[in-house]
Amino acid sequence: MDKDYVVGIDIGGQSSKLGVVDARGEVLAQSVVKANPSADADVIIKELADAVIKLVAQSGKHGQIRGIGVGAPNGNYYTGSIAFAPNLPWAAHGEVKFAEKLSEACGGIPVSLTNDANAAAVGEMTYGVAKGMKHFIMITLGTGVGSGIVIDGKVVYGADGFAGELGHTIAVRHNGRLCGCGRTGCLEAYCSAIGVARTAREWLDLSDEPSLLREVQNITSKDVYEAAKEGDAVALRVFDFTGRILGEKLADFIQFSAPEAIVLFGGLARAKDFIYEPTLKAMNDNVLPLWKGKVKLLFSQLKESDAAILGASALAWEL
Amino acid sequence: MDKDYVVGIDIGGQSSKLGVVDARGEVLAQSVVKANPSADADVIIKELADAVIKLVAQSGKHGQIRGIGVGAPNGNYYTGSIAFAPNLPWAAHGEVKFAEKLSEACGGIPVSLTNDANAAAVGEMTYGVAKGMKHFIMITLGTGVGSGIVIDGKVVYGADGFAGELGHTIAVRHNGRLCGCGRTGCLEAYCSAIGVARTAREWLDLSDEPSLLREVQNITSKDVYEAAKEGDAVALRVFDFTGRILGEKLADFIQFSAPEAIVLFGGLARAKDFIYEPTLKAMNDNVLPLWKGKVKLLFSQLKESDAAILGASALAWEL
Q1: Cβ-count burial of B173 within 10 angstroms (0-12 exposed, 13-18 middle, 19+ buried)?
Q2: Most buried among B21, B163, B218, B313, using CB within 10 Å?
Q3: CB distance from A77 to chain B under 8 Å?
């Protein structure tokens, strides 16, 4: 019998999501494993393996699973390890040979692993808007800013497996904001959900301009989005600014790998109506003439609840 | 008989250089064709083909040439064309199907073509300091700043063949210098030979600090280099500044493709003693901790007079 199904696992700090997926990107069955506070990687891996086995049985596809794809913070494609991932207590202080151990615990089904943004890129290439593209760059705009770069139809992993940290290229060289990575001025400090909220808070402090956001305690990017939908001038300018910073850096990335498209994904990409125009304009204003108006700016259309599972699962088709 | 030799042609605005090269990177014979002011591409190609045929005959390797590799401004690897190259009157106003026509004029020997910086990267990978490396970035510091990016052992050409314009990524975002490309703040406006000379001239205007450079009319980068060798404080600071700007951008590039090394080449790379330290420091100060101190900063060791021919010739081994 052909093995026509794959399993995708998206590992997160709060919970991990699992799904059994077919070649068209239909999620046949899915489940969630809540984060276990244990710092023992073997306990965690056993728990995940049990969940995989149960889910595969539920889906009725036992014996037909080609492989398991895993997207995980700090996941390394080459080594199959997760190492020094601050949000995963069981992988925060060393290197866990995750792919190897999970495969063993799942009766030898092969396992492929990479970080979440690379998995998202493979997902878009396999099931999404980048289907058929050989050259594109995936940018994930979530709590942080991640990236997955595809050249000649393959994700770029680099010499060590960690290529594609575009969220930590420098967007603001002088007096840039402190980033979570400890450096200043990173793209992530401006164009993540946290960055958007911070821009709004800083601007409200700098003027007395009326804004719906003045009524909000602890502004989040979602609040800025809701205010923008109401036509709030400050909120709209926050997205203009965010789009401009993002577009300027996208222009640099285009000059690196000359992609056919940039694909945006993640919470902030939901604010498409507000960031598309300023991002596209800044991108085209900042590329060499030969690329002006030529590189597509696309938004992922994968269902957000499935996207992480799909991305991870797509890795397994290459096994 | 095996075809164990290749021809390299480096096409320039002033002259084109040709060489017959063996697998170890020895240039067995070489010649120069002075630029012909003709705007007729067919005339130029005939002239180059005649020179190739003559040189191959001289080298005694007739019938043993595997292919011809060409490095040319605005050369496109995919199409084999040279298009809109401002310094080549015969290819300045349209697209010339160069590879196809040269092959025809040379009796059907296959021809591969790319731009000069990509050719330099292939040259380093075939004969130079990047031999055996799968992931590195070549930066050519000449009149302009060019780049050739190698990932998984292959030059990155991108969707359209024009990838790797790192000299035109933005180094200075606000009040940046005007670049030859018409935009402002490009890396090339600071870290090319012209950029170095300009930095020196600007700084001399801004202070009364004594400097050997004050005696020089129309300062060039070579003058700055000579002054630095004499210990001139202004000239030394110019190289410090140039290295810092370069290193900051190299850090961004590392975060893109996670290379094993950056290889510097070109006129300015000769000032190694003055730019190595500030470049390396800025590079390591600006990368994510995971790459700090890990990516090598190398200088090409190919003989400068042969390097352009070697780079171009290396393309032909892949034919």
Answers
A1: middle
A2: B313
A3: no
